[in-house]
Every structure is written in C-alpha cells, then in structure tokens.
From TrEMBL:
This is Cobalt-precorrin-5B C(1)-methyltransferase. Belongs to the CbiD family. Gene3D superfamilies: CbiD-like. SUPFAM superfamilies: CbiD-like.
Length: 375
C-alpha cells in the first residue's frame, strides 16, 4: 500500500490518484461483475508504479457479457479540474476474438493535432493508462478472449475547458493521464509535463521557433498588440529556466519571450523561477540598473519603496529614466542565452517587455521588425 501523505514545505498533504488509475479500477470492477455476476462495492488494482490501491465503486451495473462501473477521481490535496469527476468504464466481453479494444466515450477528448502521445483521431487515453488497462484485463480474461473497453466521463467536455487540452488539440473532453498512477500534492511536474507536450507538438508540426509568455497577460499582449497567432504561443508560467532548457532539448533554435516587466525583471537578474515563493528581487534589480545609469538618489529611494513595477514605472517616468527598460530587455536576452550556451542547438532569443499602464516598454529588436518576422 502507498504512503497516503506527502510532506511539502512542512505541510502534511494527502496524495491522490490519476484519471488513468481511476479508469483502470473502473475497468477491473466492470469486468469482475461480468465474470462473477454480482455487484462490486470495492476494487483493488495496481498503479503504474506498482502500488496496490483499493477504491470504492460507484453506479455498478452488469449483464451476462457487459458491465459498467465508475470510480470517483480523487486528486488528494492537489485537487485539479478533474477532482470529483466520475470516471466510467463499460466493458464488453468478445469471446470470438483475442484483441482488447480501448476507446473513449462521452467526455473523453479526441486528438486532432499531430505530435501528441496518441495519434490523430484516437481518444486521449495516454499510453501508460492504456497499458495498465490492457494488462489488468488480460490478466483477468486470459489469452483466448477479447474485450472492448469504453472509458467515459460525464461532465468531461465542460471540465476540459479548464485544462490545457484545447491548446494541445484535444477536443471534446478531458484526457486520461498518468505515468505513475499517483498524484503527488502540490507537484509542479504535471504542469511542466503539459508544457513539454505542447512544445513537442509544435516541433513535430515543423516549427523551429516558439513564442514564450509567462502568463495570460503576456499571451494577451502577444496576440492583441504584437499580432502573433495564438497557436504559436506557449505559456511557460513561472518555469522560465526549465522551459528554456526544454525548448533547446526538443530542438527549437529561435525564441521570442514576451512578458510583463513584473515577471521579466527577475530574469534580468538571472532568476529563472519567477514565482514569488521562490524569489523577489524586482525593486533591487530596478534600483541597481538605474544606479548604473546614474539615476539620482531621490529616484532610487522612491523605486526602492515601491511594491510593484507599475508604481516604480511612475517614478521612472517622472525622472525620465525610461531607458532602463531597454537595458533590462537586453539583459533578459543575455541571461537567457547564457543559460543555454553550453548546449546544442544554439538558441537565439529575442525579448519584448511591457507594463499594464504604459503598454510596450522595450524589446531587443524594433517592435515592427518583430511583428514582421513573427506574425
């Protein structure tokens, strides 16, 4: 049995289960009901990492050769958009064949773009959950019988709007995911994995350049002001260093980074994890660079007392030191390229920074040139 808790930053947090584990458990419960011709209240399966788990069965129904069961998705203390959904499996025995067919029904998305783990047209049931479902089914029915397994998730289509699926070309529902079968609370790994999938998909579609933004503000500015198509933009969140290394590992050679000064000023100081829980040197970085430009002590003290880069921007404008933004944009480019300099391929990085009030602030190439090249 697994340890039910993980300790993150001194907090005791409960682990959960992936949609893949839930789909596997629902399949085993349905199959057991066909073979035993009785309702199942609990089911025990092994996750992809080999952990044995027992789960409650919901809404069981069965007949001589077909049965349906559901398992409630429990994300533990890392509850995501799919937490609380019922993951259904309908299993039909196929005694005249030996193949095990696995497909998605209502609420499970369909792949519409190349570059994902599943081929275009397939249900978005990732390879590990498919393998676990097939292994459990084969172990139960033996080598001389086949089965059809349909995974469905009522409410999945609506829930998918809260996920990355539409960006990845997965339409009509959620994905059935999981590499270990266990959800570790407050883990950033699944988020990073989704970004890698998006980058890989773009690369497999033939792109060798990519636009990276740190959030929705960056995406809005990239599309509405710069005019870049949404399909070329990847949201890297706060994982600037991680995503840049993934971009290089996958094989991209050109990057355009577009972001709000409040995030990107940290990168100018060589900080590549920009979440406030990890770092905050915004005012210190502004003060240091303004001082190098010869800014008066009055401005430096004003900026030092500011809580946001927007407030600092007001003081910077008052003293006519807006040139600091170009200095910072150039440093963001230099720092980012330096992070990747000892690896191949060589990656050329351009940068655009903006503010909420002022809009465009600076870029490493003229903005019109960037628009011409990237739109």
């Amino acid at each position: 049995m697994m340890d039910e808790y993980a300790y993150v930053n001194g907090k005791k947090l409960r682990k959960g289960f992936t949609t893949g584990t839930c789909a596997t458990a629902a399949t085993v419960a349905a199959l057991s009901m066909i073979l035993n011709q009785e309702r199942e209240e609990k089911v025990t399966v092994h996750t992809a990492s080999g952990v044995e788990v027992t789960m409650d069965v919901h809404n069981p129904s069965f007949g001589p050769e077909e049965a349906t069961a559901a398992i409630e998705k429990d994300g533990g203390d890392d509850a995501d958009a799919t937490h609380g959904l019922l993951i259904y499996s309908t299993v039909t025995l196929l005694p005249d064949q030996t193949e095990i067919e696995i497909d998605g029904g209502q609420g499970v998305g369909r792949v519409t773009e190349k570059g994902l783990a599943c081929d275009v047209g397939m249900a978005a049931i990732n390879p590990t959950p498919r393998r676990m479902i097939e292994q459990h089914v084969r172990k139960i029915i033996g080598p001389n019988c086949g089965a059809r397994v349909i995974i469905s998730v009522p409410g999945g289509e609506e829930t998918a709007k809260l996920t990355y699926n539409s960006r990845l070309g997965i339409i009509g529902g959620i994905s059935i995911l999981g590499t270990t079968g266990i959800v570790n609370p407050m883990s950033e790994e699944s988020w990073k994995a989704a970004i890698t999938i998006e980058l890989t998909m773009l690369y497999n579609q033939g792109h060798r350049s990519v636009v990276l933004v740190p959030g929705n503000y960056g995406e809005d500015f990239a599309t509405n002001t710069v005019g870049i198509p949404a399909g070329r933009i990847v949201n890297m969140s706060n994982f600037v260093g991680h995503v840049l290394k993934e971009v290089q590992r996958i094989g991209f050679t050109k990057v355009l980074m577009i972001g709000h000064m409040g995030k990107f000023v940290k990168v100018a100081a060589g900080i590549f994890s920009t979440h406030s829980k990890d770092s905050d040197a915004r005012m210190e970085t502004l003060v240091a660079n303004l001082a190098l430009m010869g800014a008066p002590m009055e401005l430096l003290k004003k900026v030092d007392k500011c809580l946001t880069t927007e407030a600092a921007g007001t003081a910077i404008k008052e003293f006519s030191y807006e040139g600091v933004y170009q200095v910072l944009a150039d440093k963001i480019k230099a720092r980012s390229e330096r992070l990747l300099r000892y690896r191949k391929p060589e990656v050329n990085i351009e940068v655009v920074v903006f503010g909420t009030e002022e809009g465009y602030l600076a870029s490493t190439q003229p903005l019109e040139q960037i628009k011409e090249e990237w739109t």
